[in-house]
Write a structure and sequence with these properties.
Layout: E1 9-13, H1 18-29, E2 33-38, H2 41-50, E3 57-61, H3 71-82, E4 87-90, H4 105-127, E5 137-142, H5 155-175, E6 180-187, H6 213-224, E7 235-238
Parallel strand pairs: 1-2, 1-4, 2-3, 4-5, 5-6, 6-7
Bound molecules: NADP nicotinamide-adenine-dinucleotide phosphate (NAP).
């Protein structure tokens, strides 16, 4: 049984929706303190209204693609406000299908900013010894099976998802001496607002149908917890056997 205590503080990005919301709520339910980050205050408040221990759920409004290079300072500010962090779940992200003929640098940069550059700089801030507990601190980043398999229109999205897995493995190797673990999870089709309206047609691809938020959130919680203390530099595919 995984449990946390309120002195264990976790940053969850993308906490206003989908997989980030599910992860934030589950961490909170299991006893941890959560700092949930997203842009949409209304949806963040709606998430908080559902949580079991609202006193241990803190909300931060931030566009993570603004001033990416200073995200390490932002993590330091959060540490000064809330205390040293035990973990970071990077669940923010966007998906956008764009055929090659409409791909340009602006479109690619939009995807890479939130799916690749922001997580790297959030991890850089988290990894600073002054900002994490140094006690088996753990980072989990949501990639996607799109980082492994090919699809039409996925040039930018797949590229961002493959790139973050590659960089996470390098950062994990570099940070192992600091007692920081980093892992990725790569889901396929999960029912969230991101996939709303287009998920039903995917159901038949999977023996048990498309995934629920909890199918991914439970894995993230395991990887954030001490139960996975010997696991780092991995990328877990969560796709009901599709690949
Ligand atoms: N759902 C799936 O089937 C699936 C499959 C594989 C991988 N994934 C990946 O899982 C992650 C989460 O997906 P989801 O399905 O949970 O999507 P979602 O429901 O659309 O949630 C995305 C979250 O990211 C936040 N976000 C987006 N841009 C942001 C920005 N610039 N600054 C701060 N926060 C930002 C959003 O918050 P605000 O809008 O409030 O800022 C929202 O909380 C994504 O990386 C996605 O690629 C999802």
């Amino acid at each position: 049984m995984i449990s946390f205590n309120k002195e264990q503080i976790f940053i969850v990005t993308g906490a206003s929706s989908g997989l980030g919301e599910g992860t934030a709520l589950l961490l909170n339910e299991l006893g941890a303190t959560v700092v949930g980050i997203a842009r949409n205050e209304e949806r963040l408040n709606a998430m908080k209204a559902k949580c079991k221990y609202p006193e241990n759920m803190h909300l931060e409004i931030r566009d993570l693609t603004e001033d990416i290079e200073n995200l390490p300072s932002y993590v330091k500010e959060l540490k000064n406000k809330y205390g040293k962090f035990q973990g970071l779940a990077y669940c923010a992200g966007i998906g956008e299908i764009a055929p090659l003929q409409i791909v340009d640098l602006t479109q690619m940069k939009k995807i890479f900013d939130i799916n690749y550059f922001a997580p790297v700089f959030m991890i850089k801030g988290f990894a600073d010894r002054r900002n994490n507990t140094g006690n088996r601190a753990s980072v989990v980043v949501i990639s996607s099976i799109s980082g492994i398999k090919s699809d039409k229109g996925h040039t930018s999205y797949s590229g961002s998802k493959a790139a973050i897995v590659a960089s996470c493995k390098c950062m994990a190797r570099e940070l192992a001496n600091s007692n920081v673990r980093i892992n990725c999870v790569s889901p396929s089709d999960v029912k969230t607002p991101m996939t709303a309206g287009k998920i039903e047609e995917e159901n038949s691809k999977y023996p048990f149908g498309c995934g629920d938020v909890s199918d991914v959130a439970n894995m993230i919680i395991y990887l954030l917890s001490d139960k996975s203390k010997w696991i780092t530099m991995q990328n877990y595919i969560i796709d009901c056997g599709y690949m």
